[in-house]
Amino acid sequence: MERLLYFNGALVPEEEVRISPFDHGFLYGDGIFEGIRAYQGRVFRLEDHLGRLYQSAKSLWLTIPETRQQMAEAVLATVRANHLKDAYIRLVVSRGPGDLGLDPRQCPKPTVIIIADQIQLFPESLYESGLPVATASSRRPSGDVLNPQVKSLNYLNSVLAKVEAAQRGVPEMVLLNQLGHVVEGTGDNIFIVRNEMLVTPPRSAGILPGITRSVVMELARGEGIPVVEENFTVHELYNADECFLTGTAAEIIAAVSCDGRLIGDGRPGPLTRHLRARFMEYAANEGVSAYPGLSVI
Ligand code: PMP
Q1: Can you tell me the ipTM of this complex?
Q2: What are phi and psi of 269, to 5 degrees?
Q3: Looking at residue 105, what is its pLDDT?
Q4: Could you tell me the pLDDT band of residue 295, with boundaries at 50, 70 and 90?
Q5: Ligand 1 center to 255 CA (angstroms)
Q6: What is the pTM assigned to this prediction?
Q7: Section 258-264 average pLDDT
Q8: Which residues contact 91 (CB under 8 A, 6 or more apart)?
Q9: Which of 127, 169, 178, 282 has an alpha carbon within 20 to 30 A of 85's alpha carbon?
Q10: Residue ranges of the domains in the chain?
């Protein structure tokens, strides 16, 4: 079936989407994006994703032509137009076409694209067994270099870590910051479990503040599970009781070894399994419906 994309204000067939070679998103990675999921026709935490998008835009002096309300409607319309119930939605706002210089003032019209498709980040078997991970040799840039809180189109840091993952024979990498603190995965946040308490790096460590991360923190606290935002080193990761990663694409997945050291007993731990089940149940029942008034099941 022909895929329809939202492209600068209208839903158009994929083949009709034309992006200028002078678009600064293409030339310089000058732009931002969001990855969003829909579960059973309901778009999960759309408000939060749009909040993060517009915050990233503000940091980059990027004026998004759509209002938040228009953008929310565009996301829902794209899911609907592709008849999707479970979807992975990619929303990209790039600086738009300009000249060959860097100056964004030469780019009067940002390019806005929404794609609704499907994604499976890791094979199902890895959700059962958990992931072996390794620490990446390149560090996350600190907030005064390229603020990781801005979800910019520049993902080279994560791309290089993915290349290294393949070389080291693991599906995912963990990145450290300049101080040697554990920060996050290539596209996901990280938690460890220590004495039945969840520990996750604070924003100031240089993380992207994940929507899944904040939902997991909320769900855990709602059940009386303590959560602290605290820096930890790779030594503490090796010696944690459990570890898991969270992200829109990855959802919740256990990490069961790091740099060859088993984490806990080397299997997804009880708290990780519980939170994954709790999250999946919550996600299926929350969100903004793309099919209002209709049964989406
Ligand atoms: N960190 C990075 C670097 C990411 O790209 C993502 C995915 N957006 C996350 C964390 C997780 O964020 P979220 O839960 O909002 O998808």
Answers
A1: 0.99
A2: -80, 170
A3: 96
A4: low
A5: 16
A6: 0.96
A7: 98
A8: 33, 34, 35, 36, 49, 53, 71, 75, 112, 113, 114
A9: 127
A10: 4-117, 124-283
For residue 62, pLDDT beyond 60: yes
Q: In 3-state terms, the chain is what percent helix, strand and coil (to 5)? A: 30, 30, 40
Cα of 282 vs centre of ligand 1, distance in Å, is 19
Residue to probe by mutation, ligand 1, list 53, 173, 248, most atoms within 8 Å of CB: 248
CA of 19 to the centre of ligand 1 (A): 25
Contact 252/210 with Cβ under 8 angstroms?
no
C-alpha 291 to ligand 1 mean position (Å): 26
Which ligand 1 atom is the nearest neighbour of the CA of 211? 15
- For 137-166, letters b (16+ CB in 10 Å) and e give eebbbbeeeeebbbbbbbeebbebbbebbe
Residues with CB under 6 A from ligand 1: 35, 158, 184, 187-189, 208, 210-213, 246-248
- One-letter amino acid at 237 equals L
Is-contact 250 190, C-beta < 8 A? no
Query: Which residue among 58, 109, 151, 162 is the active-site one?
Result: 151
Residue 58 appears among annotated catalytic residues: no
124-283 classified as CATH 3.90.1480.10: no
Residue nearest (by alpha carbon) to ligand 1 atom 3: 187
Domain 4-117: which CATH number of 1.10.10.10, 2.40.30.10, 3.30.470.10, 3.40.190.10: 3.30.470.10
The Cα angle at residue 201 between residues 124 and 213, in degrees rounded to 5: 45
Q: Which residue has the higher pLDDT, 293 or 3?
A: 3
